[in-house]
Amino acid sequence: MSQNNSGSWRARNKPYIYAVVFAILLTFFIAPEVMDDKSMSPEIDKGSVIIMTKQSYSAKRGAPDLGTVVVMEKNYAPKVSDDNIVARVVGKPKDTVEIKGGKLYRNGKEYKVKGANGDLGKSMKVKVDEDSVFLLCDNRDCKTDSRNSKLGTVSMKEIKGDAKMIIWPFSDFGKVGKNE
């Protein structure tokens, strides 16, 4: 009778078990997203790959923080974009967001987004529902955000998650900034 000194099955396969558990966790909590447009340029350029943490928001669970870059599922806005929408939260539930004179106002105070560029477009004033947010692209010339009448304010249930990190190209590798 020969003895097997190589240890238990679990010990021999430990690296594979860790890899499978890690892959499952990644699938449930994070996902890659490829930027197919220039809506968040200059922070996130077209062709960049970002890592998104999956998040669930609602009036009960809470809203994303102001300035957070979020990813919205394309199925909720097929008339606005053929791909997922990536934009920054500039208005939280019950806020009043106004665009006038080429400036953005939140609850009557000017709200500036560091690095944002382009034209905000025509004047508008919106009261955000208690279960919605107002999204705005950093590249203001791109209107795949709440300024588009086909989208408007976005229900928090339609948000897939938060953009956290740029992983490609390596020259842009790093954290996606929150507007602070």
Write the layout of secondary structure elements.
Layout: H1 9-12, H2 14-29, E1 30-34, E2 49-54, E3 69-72, E4 85-91, E5 96-100, E6 103-106, E7 109-110, E8 124-127, E9 132-136, E10 154-155, E11 159-168, E12 174-175
Keyword list:
eight-stranded antiparallel beta sheet; mainly beta
What's the short version?
The protein is mainly β. It contains 2 helices and 12 strands.
Structural class, from helix and strand content?
mainly beta
Quaternary form: single chain
Shape, per Cα inertia axes: elongated
* Poorly predicted parts: none
- List the secondary-structure elements in sequence, H or E: HHEEEEEEEEEEEE
Number of strands: 12
Q: Strand fraction band?
A: 25-35%
Largest sheet at a glance? 8 strands, antiparallel
Tell me about this structure.
By secondary structure, this protein is mainly β. The protein has 2 helices and 12 strands; from the N terminus they run ααββββββββββββ. It has helices at residues 9-12, 14-29; strands at 30-34, 49-54, 69-72, 85-91, 96-100, 103-106, 109-110, 124-127, 132-136, 154-155, 159-168, 174-175. Strands 1, 2, 3, 4, 9, 10, 11 and 12 form an 8-stranded antiparallel sheet that branches. Strands 7-6-5-8 form a 4-stranded antiparallel sheet, with no helix packed on it. A hairpin with a 5-residue loop joins strand 11 and strand 12 (174-175). The protein is elongated. It starts with 8 loop residues before the first helix and ends in a 5-residue tail after the last strand. The model has no long low-confidence stretch (mean pLDDT 88).
